[in-house]
Each structure stands twice: as C-alpha cells, then as structure tokens.
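@channel sequence for tomorrow's demo:
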Amino acid sequence: MKRNKALNIKASIFYFLLFTFYLTSCNQINVFEKDAVIPNHEWQYNYVPSFQFTVTDTASKYHVYVVLRHTDAYRYNNIWLNIGFQTPVDTMRKAQYEFSLGNDINGWEGTGMDDIWEVRKLITNGPLEYFTFKTPGEYKFTLAQTMRENPLPNIMNAGIRVEKVKQ
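structure tokens (generated this afternoon):
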C-alpha cells in the first residue's frame, strides 16, 4: 500500500512538472527587463546606466517602466530622473521625470521584503499610456539621477522594463 501511494505521488509530481513545462514552453515572453547595480548603493551623477534591446514587432503596443530598488533608509519620498531614449534612426533625446516612491502616511510604494523595496513606474504617458516602436532595430534607454544630493544614498538598482500590452 505504501509503495503504491509513493508511486502515485511521484506520478502526480511528474505530470505536474510536465504540464508546467508545457505551459511555459508554449508562451513567448514579451518582456525586456534589465537593471544595473548602483555601486556601493550610492548613485553618483556621473553613473548613467544604459539599456539596449531589439524591437522586431512594430505593430504592438508596449508599456515602458523604470524599475528602482532602494532600502528603507532612503531619505526621500520621490526621485528625479533624466531618462534618455534613442531610436535606431535618431539621436538620444532626454526628458526629466519625477517619480513618487512613497509618502509619510502610507509608506513605501511597490513591493518590499525586510528593508528592501522595489517599485515599477510607468514612463509612457498620454491618454493611452502605451508606447509604439515605429522602426525595427536597436533601442536604447539611459537613466541618470538628478536629485540635489550627490551621491544619492540607499538606491540599490535602477533599470528598464518593456512589456507588450496584452490585448
């Protein structure tokens, strides 16, 4: 009886893993996400991480996020960033953004574990809140902190996430 029960458990685990593998192998991942580690958790003005990715699907709509990871000791409720964007056929264009990271009443935004917090902030703006890449090829984003404090302590990672909008 114990042997049959053990075989049933092993068979169940095997079929579960097989089914999970089937589901994940059939779905194309439509996400680019990359982050840069901020040296010593102190973001200097002159440290400007860049992120490159290739776009082949110009018909789809995309959400573009800034992804930040900081410690609970971060002193501000916001962060100011210069975000650079370069298409395959254009020069780098930059825009300044302010992102709220939390407030004194509700605490930090995003997800936290112990004293580390991660937040995703949508940078596509406008009434539709999505972005279209008009030309196939290599795209580049850069991130630079423009807070008054240099270096900016307690920022651990900064990155970009690009995902297709689900229709």
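heads up for whoever presents: The longest strand covers residues 62-71.
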